[in-house]
Design brief:
The structure is a homodimer. With about 220 residues, chain A is an alpha+beta fold. In chain A, about 55% of the residues lie in helices and about 10% in strands. Chain A contains 11 helices and 4 strands, in the order E-H-E-H-E-E-H-H-H-H-H-H-H-H-H. In chain A, helix 1 runs parallel beside helix 3 and helix 4 runs antiparallel to helix 5. Chains A and B meet through strand 4, helix 3 and helix 4 of A and strand 4, helix 3 and helix 4 of B.
Amino acid sequence: MASEVVLLHLLHSPFATRVRIALAEKEVEFESREEDLSNKSPLLLKMNPVNKQIPVLIHKGKPICESLIIVEYIDEVWNHKSPLLPSHPYLRAHARFWGDYIDKKIYPIGRMLWASSDHEEASKKELIEIFKVLEGELGDKPYYGGDTFGFVDVALIPYYAFFHTFEMLGNFSFEAEFPKLVSWAKRCMQKTSVSKSLCDQHKVYEVVLELKKKLVVE
Amino acid sequence: MASEVVLLHLLHSPFATRVRIALAEKEVEFESREEDLSNKSPLLLKMNPVNKQIPVLIHKGKPICESLIIVEYIDEVWNHKSPLLPSHPYLRAHARFWGDYIDKKIYPIGRMLWASSDHEEASKKELIEIFKVLEGELGDKPYYGGDTFGFVDVALIPYYAFFHTFEMLGNFSFEAEFPKLVSWAKRCMQKTSVSKSLCDQHKVYEVVLELKKKLVVE
């Protein structure tokens, strides 16, 4: 591990995508190590012995775990450009609140859609409710961060790669239901930091379908 | 709402207890408004329309929600004394990691112990595993924050009020299983900020038993 910055990750993980975006925003070069979650590397188990999950950022040999905590760390360490969290404590708390909301809501409900054949209707309804709340918070701002791309944008935009999956499994159209959210996502995708970090929507859908086959006991 | 700092809370909530401890550490006076969760106040619904949960700190009329986010906010705004998070980015990330671990692990498993009659054995085993990990992280340090009481201490110590409940429902002894954790908790309780903020262990057990009666369908 000769590099100063190493990322243990997975291409299609929305959590890992956040970290790749934050590093790209700060123009930090890193050594990429993709993990195979069915056969985790000794390095991953050593660096994140508690949760054994990706992403892990290893900076000067020391591990930082949990995606939003890593994003805050990157923002604090490489603070010379592209601030992600605002400087005012109230606005920082507000951004953290929405990061936490995204974390607690989207992935667990998304996972229910592909890991279970029960409660599918309830999960679809809840997923739509979550995006309604998120579109409401965006309002007419160009970014969640206001005029500039920030912490909440980094937290949410990786799920753009899952929009197609959510549409297929949830039987709704983002364009029709959440036009502001789609405009925001396209605006974010114009940034190289985002477009180069996100997986292709169709590739993600393929991965999820494979996972669904394994997880759902028919 | 004439006061500059208002707290919407509940005495026995571990999440609310964190906020009371942080405010006490900073010697911030506040107006206490206890909520009745079966009949939430219009103020709570207005101030936390997304999650509708306590605690909510209202500072100069503006709401901050989610207990650990509130604790960070308090630490950033009242930064003249008793720093809770360390100043080094790596140590901050480390503290946030453990705050997140405590948040994701203890309450959900504790709740399974009193809300369900299924999987009780598995929940008990998992709860013991969680405290084993937490005792390991404490090691021989006086506090999670090292030599001084800090963010992780604030996150975890409210559960000391639940130790008796966990012992009764989990059929184990904290003193026997986790002597370092018990010494740490007693050390924290010597601080007025902690002792005046925590509920009595037996009162908490009574509340949980009442809740268990309502929640468990025999």
